[in-house]
Amino acid sequence: xxxxxxxxxxxxxxxxxxxLRHPIERFVAExxxxxxxxxxxxxxxxxxxxxxxxxTDISFANPxxxxxxxxxxxxxxxxxxxLPELFKRHVSVLTLNLTQPQxxxxxxxxxxxxxxxxxxQQDENAKIKIxxxxxxxxxxxxxxxxxxxxxxxxxxxHQSLPQTDMAADIIFTATGKLKGLALTASGSGGTVLxxxxxxxxxxxxxxxxxxxxxxxxxxxxxSLSRFSAVDLNIALNGTSLDQLYPLIGIxxxxxxxxxxxGHLLHSTKQWRxxxxxxxxxxxxxxxxxxxxxxxxxxxLKGDVTFQxxxxxxxxxxxxxxxxxxxxxxxxTQQTTHALPVSTANKRxxxxxxxxxxxxxxxxxxxVRIQAKHIQRARALPIDNLVAHVKMNNAILxxxxxxxxxxGGTLAGTVTLNGKHxxxxxxxxxxxxxxxxxxxxxTIKLTRTSIGQIHGEFDLSGTGNAxxxxxxxxNGRATLVVDGGKISKLMLETAGLHLWExxxxxxxxxxxxxxxxxxxxxxxxxxxxxTKIMVLDTDITTIMxxxxxxxxxxxxxxxxxxxxxxxxxxxxxxxxYIRGKFAKPVVSLDKTKLILRxxxxxxxxxxxxxxxxxxxxxxxxxxxxxxxxxxRRAQH
Length: 635
Prior knowledge:
It is built from 10 helices and 36 strands.
C-alpha cells in the first residue's frame, strides 16, 4: 500500500502535463465553439483545495461576429483554481497572474458578449469567476457597438521604490470614446486587481477626460467588478452638468461651466457625495447629495445651499435664453413714447429655451435648495430663495418655492408634467407686501412712494418652453396695490389737466394719496383680458381695459382718466399702451381730445372690485384703502 502511494506521488510529480493540452483544447472547443490554443508548456501542481496551473503562449478565439479574431493572447498564465468548485462543474479562479496579455472584449449591438462562454455568448452564468488578477505589461481593448464605445487601455507595472519589498504599482492609460464622447484616462493602482474581493479595498488614483468633462479621483474601491464600496476624494469640472449623463446615467440640469470637489462614498446600493463645494458659472454652493438605486429609478436626495447665487447661471435650467431674436418693430404713426426697458433691442422677451424632458424619467429626486445672497442685475430686486424640488416619474414639482421680491415675497407651487409632450404646466403663486418703489430700483421715482403690491396667479398651460406655456395659459391673474403716495404731476399728465400741469412745472411736484389700484385678468389661451383695471386717488380715477397677448408678446391697453377736481382746462382723452413687450409705446388719440369739466367715476366702475375680496382679505386686509373702497361699493 505504501509502495502504491509512493508510486502515485512520483507520477504526479514527474507527470508531463503537456499531454493534457490537446484534450483541454478539444473540451473547450466542444463547449464554446471557439479555439483555445496552448502553444507553450502546461504545468499543474495539485493541492487541496487549490490547484496551481501554469501555461505559456496561450490564445483564445473570438466568436465569428467579433471584429477581432482572438479574444486574448497571453505570454504566461499562473493561476490558482478551486478544485471543489471544479468538481461542481464551476470554474473559480482565486488568483490569476498574466504576463503580457492582449485582451479584446466586445459587446455586440444585440447584447452578445464575447467573454460569456456559451455558444451564443448570452448566458451571464457562462463565465469564469476570477477573484483577483495581476497584470504585467498588457493591453486591453473594449468595444460596445450599440453604445458607440471603443476603448484601448495599456497597463504596465513599476516599482515605485526600487530595491525595496514594497509591492509594485500598476500604471495605466486609456484612449477612445465612451458613448460617443472622446475619452482619455491615466492613473495608477495596486498591482492585484481585486475583482470580487469584498473585503480588501483597491487603491486607485485616476484622471479622466470625457468629452468636455474632467475628473480626478483618489482613494479606494472594493470589488472592482461590483463596486460594492467606494471611498474617493474627487475633483470634477466641465461645461455643463447635463453632460455627466453618459457617466452616471442620471439626468442633471443644463448649466454653465462648473467645478466641484467632495467626498464620494458608496455602499450597497447607495452613493453619497458628502461635504461638497462647487462653482457653477459665478455661483458658489455646497451641500450633501445621495443617490439610492434600490427602487425602480435612482432616487436623488439632498440639501444644497448657495453661498452666492448668480441669477444669470439659472438661465439654462429654467428655460431662459440670451439669444437675440431680432430688433423691435417700428413705431405706429401715432404720437409715441418708448418705455424704458432693458430688452428694447429684442423682438421677444419671454424665455424660449426648451426644457429637455427626455431624461426626466431616469431619476426621482427630493432636493431642498436655499440661497440667501443672490447676485442679480440691479433692475431685479430678488433675494432669499427657498425651493423644495421634487421629481417623481418625470413630474417636476417645486413645492414650495419662495423668494423675496422688493421687500415682499413671491411664494407658491410650480408643477411641470414631463410625461406629456408638450409639458403640462401648473403655476399657483401669490405675491405679498411687494414695495413698488423697490420693484424698479433703476427707475428714479423722485418723491413717489407707492404702497404694497399683492397678487394671485393661478395658471395652467402646455409647452416645452416658458414662452409656449404662457402662450397657451388659462386661469386668472390679479394684482392689488393698496395705499401709498404717487406723483401728482404724473396723474395730472395722465388726466391732461393742462392748467395744473403748468402750475406744477413752475412750483414743483407734489405727492398725493393713492387709495387703491387693481388689475384683474381672465386668462384664456395665453390672452389676458381685463375684468377690471383701476387706479383710484384723491384727484383722479384711471380706468383701463384691453388685453395682453402672451403668444404674440403684445400689449393693447386703453386707459381712461376720470377727474375728481375742477380744472379750467381738463382735457379728457384715451391713453393707449400698445406694441411688443420688448418695446411698448404710449400714445394719445388726438382725435378724441375734448374739453371736459370736472367728472366723477361712475358707480358701476367699482362693482367688479367685489371679485377680489378674497385677495384683499389675505393681502392688505379689510381695513385697508382697497377694503374700504369695496365696502363702499357693497353699500
